[in-house]
Amino acid sequence: MAAADDLAFDPWDPEFVSDPYPAYAELRERGRVICFEPTDQWLVPHHADVSALLRDRRLGRTYQHRFSHEDFGRTPPPPEHEPFHVLNDHGMLDLEPPDHTRIRRLVSKAFTPRTVEQLKPYVHALAEDLVSALVEAGGGDLLADVAEPLPVAVIAEMLGIPESDRAPLRPWSADICGMYELNPSEDVAAKAVRASVEFTEYLRALIAERRKEPGDDLISGLIAAHDEGDRLTEQEMISTCVLLLNAGHEATVNATTNGWWALFRNPEQLAALRADHSLVPSAVEELLRYDTPLQLFERWVLEEIEVDGTTIPRGAEIAMLFGSANHDPAVFADPGRLDLTRKDNPHISFSAGIHYCIGAPLARIELAASMTALLEKAPTLCPAAEPERKPNFVMRGLEELRVEVR
């Protein structure tokens, strides 16, 4: 067993957050599993182990389908946090079979490849409109002007949320996602609880409207979805909608801005992309790998496991380091180099196993659409200032990305 107390891994240190990849290299050298006392977690930095453990059914996103908090040796969350946990714990990302299987199957009926494919013209038209406005202004904040409004509008369009109701969606999402950081503060928790209550109340009313007057939208589809008598409960519908919004745009926003900042810092790769737009699909995959928008994903140990001779007991929590796995030299040749032509790219930015991101095809469409629009309409796009990173470690992104169109 290795300990991380003398390593550079410090998820609350701004210097580490600005560039965690050297610390990941240290972790990989140290071992395959590292005890990290500040969060009471076992860190897993290698690609092979992360990939295997994401598929290992001895681990779970929750333990409450099998154990009480007390039986599992864990302290129940404070009662004042209950609105957040009710919302979070009924989403399929934080459920295990059989509930996960049932909900994912029902959601898949409404979230089909055909549904996603039909969104392509809307996504591309919206991306072109947003980029055109950026070009007309001579530049601006790529995050606020393009990266953020695109996926928010797409998910809202899918769900059938009226344009007049969309303003609070991003703030609600950001406040809720604050709880996914390591050891969130009480202030962060209070914001997440408030956002959970407000978002739940809004969706409950919208679902009631769709029950009376169904439309051609995902919420109506979730209401109608059924299989052998199974249906989604109202809470499951609410949690699913919030999950789709949060996961459907938080990662896409960060992937867009992380990606463009990486391109600006690698001008030869950006020049190659501008010269050959057919590189866009492989560029999207490489940028997702190179600066991973979701750096860490957690699992509970439901049954004792062993990793490299180290026994990890039931009740422990494992933190799988996606960013480290995506820079593992055992899998990626010269992982610290951005290579938009990289052919063998088994990154795990969308997770793996039963919790593989259901929205991955839509995210790829959105990322390709905004990248293509920027390449075509803003070929002289360049940074106007050094961006500031968000203090978050788990959800990695920028505060803003100021750009110019010369």
Textual characterization of the structure:
This protein has 406 residues and is an alpha+beta fold. The protein has a single domain (2-405), classed as Cytochrome p450, CATH 1.10.630. 49% of the residues lie in helices and 10% in strands. Helix 10 (169-177) crosses helix 11 (186-212). The relative contact order is 0.18. The mean pLDDT is 93.
Provide a brief overview of the structure.
The protein has 406 residues and is of the alpha+beta class. The chain contains 17 helices and 13 strands. The mean pLDDT is 93.
Chart the SSEs and their pairings.
Layout: E1 2-3, H1 14-18, H2 21-30, E2 34-36, E3 41-44, H3 47-54, E4 59-60, H4 82-89, H5 99-110, H6 113-118, H7 120-136, E5 139-141, H8 142-147, H9 149-159, H10 169-177, H11 186-212, H12 218-224, E6 226-227, E7 230-231, H13 234-265, H14 267-275, H15 280-290, E8 296-301, E9 305-307, E10 310-312, E11 317-321, H16 322-325, H17 360-377, E12 381-383, E13 402-405
Parallel strand pairs: 1-2, 3-11
Antiparallel strand pairs: 2-3, 4-8, 5-13, 6-7, 8-11, 9-10, 12-13
Helix pairs in contact: 4-11, 4-13, 7-9, 7-17, 9-13, 10-11, 10-13, 11-13, 13-15, 13-17, 15-17
